[in-house]
Amino acid sequence: MRRLILALMLPAACLSVHAEQTGRISGKVLNKAGEPIPGSKVTLKRTDRNWFKELTPDKKGHFLQVGLEPKEFEFTVKAEGFVDYKEIIKIPLADVLVRNITLLTPAEARAAGPVAGGTQAVPDDPGAALDAEGREAFNASIPLYNDGNYEEALPHIEKAYKTLSEALSILKDEAAKAELAPEILKIERVLGICLAQAGAKKEDGEPYLLKALERNPKDERVIAGLIETSKAKQDAAAEQKYLAMLEAIQGPNPDVIYNKGVEAFNAGKTKEAKAHFLKALEIDPKYAKAHYLLGMVEYANMNLKGTKQHFLQYLELAPAGDKAGEIKEMLKDPSLKNIK
User: Fold this and answer.
1) Per DSSP, what are the bridge partners of residue 65?
2) Confidence category of residue 334, pLDDT binned at 50, 70, 90
3) 177 in a domain, yes or no?
């Protein structure tokens, strides 16, 4: 009886010893958003002999393989539309190795750089390096552009536009091309604005701005750029057209109206200038500079009471303004001082 019991116990003992000689691997395969990837495959391949095992993750992205010898394996994860993940792993003895893998698209892999532990090598693509170079140039321009430093931003923008346009023409990865195309349109808009504001020939920005305006007819910065290109071309009709577009979006602009008054005043057209300055004050009653030039218009027309009124209003609004000293000196003149 004792021999029979021993014999019955041996298989269980042997099984226990065998279980301790193997390990297992488990994990999950997800995309960057944390979602399972349909159709993904996990492959385990021995590095010391010709043996491999292919696993298909379940609907939640989980996979498991038991009974693996504690050896080195080439661990590969693949899915259509994603960059392959590859790593050399060592299965632990009588334990589980956990590998949770996030597969990246080619564009995500380029942005992420090296992956810790394994590799997700982006397929050789002659446009990839240009893509990275162009994006780097654009990123360098952004703080300058946002600060209104168009002159310093311009060389970076020009490089980004040229480099990324070339990258788009030679990229092999269709997903990367689809992602890059709208980015180039954004850069094209910024290039037009920078050229219009700080280019050696401001009118060079016009073709880019016109395309940007077609995409968004209410883009105020683009319209402001087109006002500058129109001035550079001395195209008064186009300038008025874009000024009207900007006014329709923003409402009447006292600066624009004041500048028209200045032009009329400098041309000796005091009546026209007065109308512009009064209009600017209708929009912004605190527009001190308009009061100064209205005072000068009235002085030229020998309306000394009107001159003094506007000068005093300027001093009330801008006691430390650029013209305050000049006005104070003029008001000392008896012809104005004695006006009630």
Assistant:
1) 25
2) confident
3) yes
